[in-house]
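Q: Here's a chain of 90 amino acids. Please give me its 3D structure as tokens.
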Amino acid sequence: MITIKCPQCQSDNLYDAEFCRHCGLRLAKDCPGCGIANPHQFSYCTQCGHSLAPAPEPSVEEKKGTDNETKEVVKEAIKEEFKFDFYESL
């Protein structure tokens, strides 16, 4: 019988287990490419070959850029709403 260790509690689990039998941690990772569940220790999907590594966190600069873009969209929406309300009140 082939077993794998849970990365959280180190309990032995059957190789194809989707959840740890001791702590309940999900052992499978869903492929972002095709959605197939893969064992947690795999780096690539067995179905389509897509990377199972988590996406890197955006840098502080990338987050700031996104926040500024969002602020601009909100400002434009408010301006448009204000124009609409202004002309409706005439």
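Q: Can you summarize the key feature?
A: The chain has a mean pLDDT of 81.
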